[in-house]
Design brief:
- This protein is mainly alpha-helical and 422 residues long.
- Helices cover 79% and strands 0% of the residues.
- It is built from 15 helices and no strands.
- α3 packs across α4 and α10 packs antiparallel against α11.
- The longest helix has 53 residues.
- The termini are far apart.
């Protein structure tokens, strides 16, 4: 296109003066023809892709949380049985067969314990139901005697049978049978999942370690194998120390229950030993509730004696027995153990409470190898004592202050009233 007269004149004037007119930049960051920059669509697509990937990952994580927790439990179970499997494999047995034998043994013991405990609970529930009318009669007689009432057991039973509360409870129980069945089936499937993963982790332990080391440089491979070994030692040591304390606790409670002539003393002793040691923090009191209930059916005072013994034994275990047994296996401070249990419960619930102590013990032992430590100087202040001669004590400072005031008073008297006025 030919330039117009105005553009031609402006061009002549600019050439005559020797300067070129300034070129205005395009508005809005557009290109020469007002187009969008080439990088902007790509940036928008990349941002949308990142947001979509984050949302998809978050959704998948929430959906797979149950599976991840089951895998974590299975991994710690595999670490717990690793010493027994390795011991059997070192004597010529295949690892798969050794793992199968260990699993069969654990399953037989667990099934026998659950069966015995279920029979005990069933018998006690039947006895409670059979003796409930007599207990109700004794309560009614006590109320009639002390409050001058005229209650009868027949009237109370008819009132309960005709009450709306009982009718609603029966209806809710009937509708909740399917929910309970679904929960039982889900629990069995979860146990099967944990058992399968723990079996694979234990049976294919060397192959799993080799696969992990294959993606690490040589320097990191030694650290990974060392961390694995520490985890096996700490988890196995935790199970060993807890099993030994469970045995001691069971024997002690068996002696008490047998002395009180409480029925099913052996099964109750095994219950107290296992539950008190493998359920942290509240396990002792939860385990003591069942023997107290059964002892109460024999004599209410027996239940009080069981409660007193449980409390005393808990203190003995915390301050005498546990420090000696866990000093070489799971050597962590009681405050750290208590805090780790609380943190594990907050993160993973009951599962976190169970695996918190061996996990913290493993982490503490692994990090302890990389922390440089020095010899502590022989200073009394390390033990909380003040060094002699470092400073006057409270008695010495008070005596010095008293002497100073006495000397000032004597000086004041020596000056006299005339000197004071001047």
């Amino acid at each position: 296109m030919a330039p117009t007269d105005e553009t031609g004149q402006s061009a002549q004037q600019s050439s005559a003066s020797g300067t070129t007119p300034p070129v205005r930049p395009p508005l809005g960051g557009a290109g020469a023809n007002g187009r969008m920059p080439r990088w902007l669509p790509r940036a928008m697509v990349l941002a949308l892709a990142l947001v979509a990937a984050f949302q998809l990952g978050s959704w998948a994580f929430h959906q797979l949380t149950g599976l991840l927790v089951n895998i974590l439990i299975a991994f710690f179970l595999a670490l717990a049985i690793e010493p027994a499997v390795s011991w059997m494999a070192s004597r010529g047995m295949r690892r798969g067969l050794a793992t199968f034998i260990v699993f069969i043994g654990v399953m037989i013991v667990s099934a026998g314990f659950v069966t015995l405990l279920g029979s005990v609970l069933a018998d006690q529930i039947i006895k409670l139901i059979e003796g409930f009318p007599e207990y109700l009669d004794s309560v009614i007689n006590w109320i009639n005697t002390h409050f001058k009432t005229d209650l009868k057991r027949v009237d109370i039973q008819e009132g309960l049978l005709r009450s709306d509360w009982l009718r609603n409870y029966v209806q809710n129980s009937a509708t909740g049978v399917l929910d309970v069945s679904a929960q039982v089936i889900g629990g069995l499937f979860q146990l099967l999942t944990i058992a399968l993963f723990s079996f694979y982790f234990a049976a294919d332990g060397p192959r799993l370690r080799r696969a992990i080391c294959s993606v690490l440089p040589p320097a990191r491979q030694a650290e990974a194998l060392r961390a694995w070994e520490i985890a096996v030692n700490k988890t196995g040591g935790y199970i060993y120390s807890r099993g030994l304390m469970a045995l001691i606790s069971g024997v002690a409670h068996f002696v008490l229950l047998q002395a009180l002539d409480v029925p099913y003393a052996p099964v109750l002793a095994v219950w107290v030993g296992l539950v008190s040691q493998f359920i942290p923090t509240i396990g002792t009191y939860l385990a003591g509730a069942l023997p107290m209930l059964i002892a109460f059916t024999v004599d209410p005072w027996y239940a009080l004696w069981v409660l007193i013994f449980v409390v005393i034994y808990q203190q003995f275990e915390n301050y005498v027995l546990q420090p000696k047994l866990t000093s070489k296996t799971v050597d962590i401070h009681p405050a750290v153990a208590f805090g780790s249990v609380i943190a594990g419960t907050a993160l993973l619930g009951a599962v976190g409470a169970l695996i918190a102590i061996p996990a913290i013990a493993t982490l503490q032992a692994f990090l302890g190898a990389y922390v440089k430590r020095y010899d502590v100087t022989d200073d009394p202040r390390v033990h909380g004592h003040r060094r002699r001669g470092e400073g006057p004590g409270l008695h010495a400072r008070a005596k010095e202050l008293w002497e100073r005031r006495r000397r000032e008073a004597e000086r004041h008297e020596d000056r006299g009233p005339g000197q004071n006025s001047s």
